[in-house]
Amino acid sequence: MAEHPRTALNNWSARTGKNIFYQEQRFGPQHAEVWIVKVYVDGEQYGAGQATRKETAKEAAAIQAVNVLRNYGHQV
Q1: Fewer CB atoms near the end CB (10 Å): N or C, the chain?
Q2: What is the chain's pLDDT, residue by residue, as a tens digit (76 residues)?
Q3: Is 3 left (phi over 0), alpha (psi -120 to 50) or beta?
């Protein structure tokens, strides 16, 4: 079974010593909010996600970050 993207990022961070940071922003009224989450690796943005639920946006950002890191040849 493959790791979830956030778990994969956390494990990769622990192995490599890289700092993972999520920036979360909420827009709109509470009944129709939109979340934008960006994930940074050592201060550089590697992914972003947008959704009506914070966890969904965070997962989308993590998926994008994992894909970018793998494209750079990292074992995430």
Answers
A1: N
A2: 478 999 999 999 999 999 999 999 999 999 999 999 999 999 999 999 999 999 999 999 999 999 999 999 999 9
A3: beta
Question: pTM higher than 0.85 for the full model?
Answer: yes
C-alpha span between 32 and 60 (Å, rounded): 19
Which residues touch 42 (CB under 8 Å, ≥6 apart)? 18, 19
Residue 74 structure tokens: 């990292």
Q: Please give the domain boundaries of the chain with CATH numbers for all domains.
A: 19-72 (3.30.160.20)
User: Which segments of 5-68 are extended strands (E)?
Assistant: 20-27, 34-41, 44-51
